[in-house]
Specification:
Elements lengths: L1 E6 L2 E4 L4 E9 L3 H6 E8 L6 E6 L6 E3 L7 E6 L4 E6 L8 E9 L15 E2 L3 E6 L1
Parallel strand pairs: 2-11
Antiparallel strand pairs: 1-3, 3-8, 4-5, 4-9, 5-6, 7-8, 9-10, 9-11
Length: about 130
């Protein structure tokens, strides 16, 4: 089994930046992370979990939700078994618990964007943006 652990959440003001990290462990090697598409999702109270961003296992393809496009950037470091979400120009509506997810993919450009497409999930990290 693989484990994903998120970190980097916190309380910030509107317009600030945060960088979330997701570290993969367990059955991990550089090839493991290399074969897994990684994604970030978020869930606000009373709302469904929604897609934020995804990156292919090769790192060559990324995909973003319209609501974060131009403000958030997803990157990965396969040597460190990690993926990051750089969040700039944060807004109060970005407040949510942010989850990291992973799923094995053969297609090097795959960037799955729905929760059901991911097998492994982290426990989440809270991001709160005050106005």
């Amino acid at each position: 089994q693989a484990q994903l652990v998120e970190s980097g959440g916190g309380l910030v003001q509107a317009g600030d930046s945060l960088r979330l990290s997701c570290a993969a462990s367990g059955r991990t090697t550089s090839s493991y992370v290399g074969g897994y598409a990684m994604g970030w999702f978020r869930q606000a109270p009373g709302k469904e979990r929604e897609f934020v961003a995804a990156i292919s296992w090769s790192g060559e393809s990324t995909y973003y939700a319209d609501s974060v496009k131009g403000r958030f950037t997803i990157v990965r470091d396969n040597a460190k078994n990690s993926v990051y979400l750089q969040m700039n120009s944060l807004k109060p509506e970005d407040t949510a618990v942010y989850y990291c997810a992973a799923d094995l993919r053969s297609y090097r450009y795959a960037t799955p964007s729905t929760p059901k497409e991911y097998r492994y999930w982290g426990q989440g990290t809270q991001v709160t943006v005050s106005s």
